[in-house]
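Feature request, filed as a ticket because there's no other form

It would be nice if the structure record came with a short human-readable summary line next to the tokens. Right now we just get the raw output. Example of a typical job, pasted below so the devs can see what we mean:
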Amino acid sequence: MSHYPHPLLAREGWPYIGASVAAAVLATALAGAWSAPLWLVAVFVIQFFRDPPRTVPAQTNAVLAPADGRIVKVERVRDSYLDRDALLISVFMNVFNVHSNRAPVDGTVERVEYSPGKFINADLDKASTENERNAVVLRLASGEHIAVVQVAGLIARRILCYVKAGDVLTRGQRYGFIRFGSRVDLYLPLAARPKVAVGDKVAATTTIIAEL
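Raw output as currently delivered:
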């Protein structure tokens, strides 16, 4: 990818990175080697907010992973956002994954729906319906719809979404961020063919998780 419109360290993390590094520098000046734990914290914060560019696969019917992480669900469910049966593919992000969220397909944002909720472990099944979450419903050029849902987790307390109804997204485009561990649920038409299984590790944009 020749051009990437975002820095390698996500802007969402700049205050945290600045504060952690400043604290480590100050501790080094005051306590020398005893500052080592604060440097470890700073390194952790820096790696958490990394946001590297990704190459978009050329396959036109591909549904791309919306986040880095591990597949925790591939099953038929009832999609409450579009009132239909759907194929649900869920990606769980731990604190060591990149937490930038990216569009899985080309599409127009039909609506954005925020739901307040709990902050239970995002690895649990009930997190999809009980946790704080933010759904983006996309309409494809074919007329099909998918819903991409950012779900807060046990530690994640801040879902960031930068799109609104009427916006046009392209595959791999960065549209949101979740701080400190979470999950993304993807509701697809039943005709979609999953290309991943529970337990698989995926990378946002580069991994094809289904075909339409």
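Something like this underneath would help us a lot:
The chain has a mean pLDDT of 86.
DSSP finds three helices and 14 strands in the chain.
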